[in-house]
Design brief:
The complex is a heterodimer. Chain A is mainly α. Chain A is about 65% helix and about 0% strand. Chain A is globular, with a radius of gyration of 19 Å. The termini of chain A are far apart. Classes of the chains: A mainly alpha, B mainly alpha.
Chain lengths: ~190, ~170
């Protein structure tokens, strides 16, 4: 059983479980599935700086902080309790491309040569982690939600603005992965 | 008089909280803080799925954006179908919460942020290989450098809040 759970789970199992989070949160207490709002709550709690956008009672949204606290703990349980002993399986075309940038370490879910404390102080690592994180935080709030709030919750509730947002998420991603990232990798 | 003032404050607070967010807390019921542990439990399950289905893998994101793997499309597509069926059933049968409250849905209004912000988010998503949820999961699984990405994302959110009035919406 444990070995069965240790291997990577197929998309249909993950998809069904993630889809079920939507009604679970609604039925447990009228909560709408979303994660990026936590970044806003963090600002409201720590640095409101008299900015109107952060002047609200973030404690009313504390369920969301418990939710991400759970994600953190769940990830810990999965990574250390149900570890997959094999390297990550990656599409050969992607491996070939990454190889030209000197990336050939598949022992972690992230490429250690790009995402690690050592890489943080290289030009490409700095761009990926610091600039990338900034874009994620700025963009998700500007768009009014991230993959969970728009792509899953918004689309499940048949909201067309969420469809527009999801299409733009994907468009930005295609642009970055195919056209911009090759230049950043060469830094 | 004081009750009236109190209501006024709550309404204003709700308006501020509703700005640019899809996941506003809709419940009007008051519960002790430890009721929030039920959301912690859901989060734990979600975190396990994140890691075991490799949704937090930088490699899976790069494959998705290069059409080299069906995995992420399968995950998101299935999740939306299951979510949509669940919401339709909740609406049809007027399902209530476990505390007997009616379940509310707020229609999302369109603004330019969904296009501009969406594109900006997409760039960051492909660059870091993580959207906000996976950032937390990666920290949990011991990739501690993701704390830097999280702090940077919080900074990005703060800068958005600071510039909000000057940005097209």
């Amino acid at each position: 059983m444990k070995e069965f759970l240790q291997q990577p789970w197929p998309w249909y199992v993950a998809g069904v479980l993630i889809g079920l989070i939507v009604p679970t949160l609604l039925i447990l207490g009228n909560k709408h599935f979303g994660i990026s709002a936590n970044l806003r709550h963090a600002c409201a709690a720590c640095f409101p700086s008299n900015i109107n956008f952060f002047k609200y009672d973030w404690k009313k949204e504390s369920w969301n902080l418990f939710f991400v606290g759970g994600i953190l703990m769940g990830a810990f349980i999965a990574a250390f309790g149900l570890p997959d002993p094999n390297p990550v399986v990656v599409n050969p075309d992607l491996m070939k491309e990454l190889n030209t940038y000197g990336i050939n370490d598949y022992t972690s879910m992230v490429p250690k040569q790009l995402v690690s404390w050592d890489a943080l102080f290289t030009a490409r690592g700095m761009v990926m982690m610091v600039a990338g994180g900034f874009l994620v935080g700025f963009g998700s709030r500007y768009a009014g939600g991230c993959t969970s709030g728009h792509a899953i919750m918004g689309l499940s509730n048949l909201q067309w603005p969420s469809l527009i947002a999801t299409c733009c998420f994907m468009a930005g991603g295609f642009l970055m992965a195919n056209l911009i990232l090759p230049f950043i990798m060469k830094l | 008089m004081s009750a009236e003032k109190n209501t006024q404050e709550i309404l204003t607070d709700f308006e501020v909280r509703s700005l640019d967010t899809v996941c506003i807390n809709e419940s009007t019921q008051q519960h002790p803080w430890w009721y929030n542990f039920k959301y912690l439990a859901v989060g734990i399950l979600f975190g396990i799925v994140f890691v075991k289905a490799e949704i937090i893998s930088w490699f899976r994101m790069q494959e998705m954006f290069r059409f080299q793997s069906f995995h992420m499309y399968g995950v998101i597509g299935t999740a939306v179908v299951v979510g949509a069926i669940s919401i339709a059933l909740i609406k049809k049968f007027k399902v209530k919460t476990i505390h007997g409250e009616e379940i509310h849905f707020t229609p999302k209004k369109f603004n330019k942020g969904q296009i501009i912000g969406g594109l900006i988010f997409g760039l960051g998503w492909a660059l870091t290989g993580a959207c906000p949820g996976p950032i937390f999961a990666q920290i949990g699984m011991g990739i501690t450098v993701m704390i830097i990405v999280l702090l940077s994302a919080i900074t990005g959110t703060w800068v958005y809040g600071y510039m909000r009035d000057r940005l097209p919406h």
